[in-house]
Every structure is written in structure tokens, then in C-alpha cells.
Write a structure and sequence with these properties.
mainly alpha; two-stranded parallel sheet; 2 strands
């Protein structure tokens, strides 16, 4: 094969692949899919370092900037995601005073500048959603209608079942748990997510919101049996046990 500079099309394809790999590395570091630790800081930190390098060399690429902003805004919550024994603390229950204000400020500034350039991609939309979460001083101050709208745009842009899952959560927060549960039904036939523990975990949460403790317990237990992450398994098992104890 000849050694030559890539064409514009090849460069775009390669950059897209690089950004996707960095996104996957960060996600595995932020929420480890297996083992005793919820987070692997070595992976998430390295992903951020490499994303900074890509943004440095390609400052006009809006998706590279969007990915870096997404990582910063998400990683800013890392100190509050686990308790003293490494237990998982969900977003709504986190002590937001532990969030990194410098990372949030940098991420918000970066995504604000990037969105103004007009070309909007999936990483930018995810960063915008993360910014809405991070700018809420309390969980109850979260602008869920805006998050729902952003996930709606993201759904039209990418065929990703995790986007549909998160859109269902946002819809439940805006329109009630039944609306979210109805949206989840489409994912049962999607082989990419059917049987995934996150689908059961979200169903359990929405059933709990709706006051259907029996259904919530069943889905929490099913989700716990399907995850290889020990902190997530412990969290889901504890949720089921607390609901069971409440019924006695």
C-alpha cells in the first residue's frame, strides 16, 4: 500500500474512529463494567489527556471539542459518585459541593463556544446534556424539559439504544413514570439492549417512581443478576431489599 496523506474523507473516518475509542475508554473508566471498583481513574484520566491532545491539534473540529467537554463535565462528578466504602451514589443523591467546579467551568465554556459554531454532532449534544445536569445546584433544580429536548435531538441524529433509554428517563421526569415506561417497550425488541441490566435497572426505577414496588423489586433483582460490576450489583440489590423491607 502506498504511503500517502489521507483524503478528507479518510481523515474524517479516522478521526471519528479515534474519538469513538476515546469515548469508550472514558466510559469504562468512569463506570467500570466489571470488577470490584465502580471507577478506574487511570482510564478516564488518560482518555481526557488524549482528548485534550486531539482538540489541541484540531481546535476547529467541533466534535473533538464536544467530546472533551463531555468528558470534563462528566468527570467533574467523579468525587461524589462513590461513598467511603466505594458504594455507588446515584446522581440525584450526590453531594454536589464535591463536584469539581473548575472542570465544570472549563467544560461549559468549551461546549458554549463549540455550539456557537453551528455544526452540531452527537458528542456536543451529550456535552450540552451534561452541562444542564452540572449547572443545577440541586437535583430538583435540574431542567428536565431541556434535557428531554436534547435527547430528542440526539435520537434523531443517532440510532443508539442507550440514547432511547436516557430519553425515556428524561421523559419520565417531565411527564411521569408511565410515559418513560411506554418508551422503554421499543427497546425490548432491540437485540443491542434487550436483556441488558441497564434496561431492567431503569424499569425498576420508573416502577418505583410509579409506586409499583413489586415490579420495581423484580426488575432491581433481575438487573443485579445481569451486571458484572460489584458496586452496581450491590446498589441494585440494596434497592430491592429496601423496597422489600418497606412492604413488611
Amino acid at each position: 500500500m502506498p504511503f500517502r496523506m489521507p483524503t478528507d474523507r479518510e481523515r474524517g473516518e479516522r478521526l471519528s474512529a479515534v474519538l469513538h475509542v476515546l469515548y469508550l475508554i472514558f466510559n469504562e473508566g468512569y463506570a467500570s463494567s466489571i470488577g470490584p471498583d465502580l471507577q478506574r481513574r487511570d482510564l478516564s484520566s488518560e482518555a481526557i489527556r488524549l482528548a485534550r491532545a486531539v482538540h489541541h491539534f484540531l481546535p476547529d473540529d467541533t466534535e473533538a471539542a464536544g467530546l472533551l467537554a463531555l468528558m470534563l463535565l462528566t468527570d467533574a462528578r467523579r468525587p461524589a459518585r462513590t461513598g467511603p466504602d466505594g458504594e455507588l451514589i446515584p446522581l440525584a443523591d450526590q453531594d454536589r459541593t464535591l463536584w469539581d467546579p473548575n472542570a465544570i467551568a472549563e467544560g461549559v465554556a468549551l461546549i458554549t463556544e463549540t455550539l456557537s459554531k453551528g455544526s452540531i454532532g452527537a458528542y456536543q449534544l451529550q456535552a450540552a446534556i451534561a452541562a444542564v445536569h452540572d449547572e443545577a445546584g440541586r437535583a430538583e433544580d435540574t431542567d428536565w424539559p431541556q434535557i428531554q429536548a436534547l435527547y430528542g435531538l440526539l435520537k434523531r441524529m443517532s440510532d443508539n439504544p442507550m440514547v432511547t433509554l436516557n430519553h425515556a428517563i428524561a421523559s419520565a421526569m417531565v411527564n411521569g413514570p408511565r410515559a418513560g415506561l411506554d418508551l422503554l417497550e421499543a427497546l425490548d425488541a432491540d437485540p443491542r439492549l434487550a436483556g441488558h441490566y441497564r434496561l431492567d435497572a431503569v424499569r425498576a426505577h420508573l416502577h418505583e417512581m410509579a409506586g409499583d414496588d413489586d415490579a420495581a423489586i423484580a426488575h432491581y433483582q433481575r438487573a443485579a443478576g445481569r451486571t458484572a460490576s460489584i458496586p452496581e450489583r450491590n446498589y441494585l440489590t440494596t434497592k430491592a431489599a429496601r423496597l422489600s423491607a418497606k412492604r413488611k
